[in-house]
TrEMBL record, chains A, B:
Catalytic activity: RX + glutathione = an S-substituted glutathione + a halide anion + H(+)
Protein source organism: Acorus calamus (Sweet flag)
Name of the encoding gene: PARC
Name of the protein described by the UniProt record: Glutathione S-transferase
Residue span, GST N-terminal domain: 2-81
Molecular function GO labels: glutathione transferase activity
């Protein structure tokens, strides 16, 4: 039962957060690639409420929901390098706000780009760009969201970078043009091993998205 | 700019969380009742992303999103009585999981009871009861979610108790029958001043819901 296990998926922006957080903290772990079409008994049993990746299993005890897992990693290994969350209560609240914004607004509007057609697709695209601009304003001219150090909001948002090509291709727009500071921030994050080793090739992500959309289309 | 202000609404389960957390911590504050049909400039300016209550303004700096505010209160006034979040990282993760579950599953399925008709309404009701049973199992035989002490999950979930009458009336079912341990937990929480003084009369909540549904119906 001892040790750290991660049930993840190579293309899931939520699961990739956990790979990055564990790498940042230098925690060794056993990785299991889940087949989302046929989820393992371990996944279903460890996350009975959502039955979703990622699940972190630490000494036999499962932790679910990616942002909760990242905070758990920060708190369970406090001596492994710098903290991901800032120390100041107000800055912590700000960091939590923007990580939550990524889930509530960026993920949601982004998914509408490829799940919808016509007006709904255009609306999703417009909202996605508006949301990117909001988070770009929160980044401002800082190297990372928390300032000079890579931290909680960076871990929460950077996995989306491997989906940027899919958003752009499906929506016909350029993130670099709309949000140049976000593009610069992505490059800065990619200089870190924890990020570059965790993010898959954006073209491979897009291929898997196309396969998913094709299957869905055939079913419907 | 100094001091603590809360922009809230008497019937919002999210805003009431903040009233309870501030009362638990014995923090004095200035309360503003927002008119949700005509939101104040202060609300819109303090929460430009969501434009929603609650917003806590501490020494001029706004904190948004109720669960983030409750955690902020716990961290900004660490010496004001017992902590709301447990100390152990795993227990903290569990507490965050269930508070998040209240938002993602209980609120969402509950709202479908009165926002839908026919099959969708029945489905919302079934899911709402299933979700209540899941959180009831997490409570188990403990007095409060964290054990013997009133804490983060209790603060996050107890405001829903003043909506229980609305769920029951609109959905024609009894929460006490379906989830007797949740009913006992509500009574236990209501013995605390922080809770009983923050929760409005369930009948008044139901009247305001009926008014809202009537307006919506007339508009459509």
């Amino acid at each position: 039962m001892e040790g750290v296990k991660l049930l993840g998926h190579w293309a899931s922006m939520f699961a990739i957060r956990v790979n990055i957080a564990l790498a940042e903290k230098g925690v060794e772990y056993e990785y299991t690639q889940e087949d989302l079409a046929e989820k393992s008994q371990l996944l279903v049993g460890s996350n009975p409420v959502y039955k979703k990746v990622p699940v972190l299993i630490h000494d036999g005890r499962p932790v679910c929901e990616s942002l909760i897992i990242v905070q758990y990693i920060d708190e369970a290994w406090p001596d492994n390098g710098p903290a991901l969350l800032p120390q100041d209560p107000y800055e912590r609240a700000q960091a939590r706000f923007w990580a939550d914004f990524v889930d509530k607004k960026i993920y949601e509007s982004g998914s509408r780009i490829w799940r919808s057609i016509g007006d709904a697709k255009e609306e999703g695209k417009k909202e996605f760009i508006d949301n990117l601009k909001l988070i770009e304003a929160a980044l401002g001219d800082k190297p990372f969201f928390g300032g000079d150090a890579f931290g909680y909001v960076d871990v929460s948002f950077i996995p989306f970078a491997c989906w940027f090509y899919s958003y752009e291709t499906e929506g016909s727009f350029s993130i670099e043009e709309a949000c140049p500071k976000i593009s610069e921030w992505v490059k800065r994050c990619m200089e870190r091993d924890s990020v570059s080793k965790s993010l898959p090739d954006p073209h491979k992500v897009h291929e898997s998205l196309q396969l998913f959309l094709k299957k869905r289309f055939v079913k419907e």
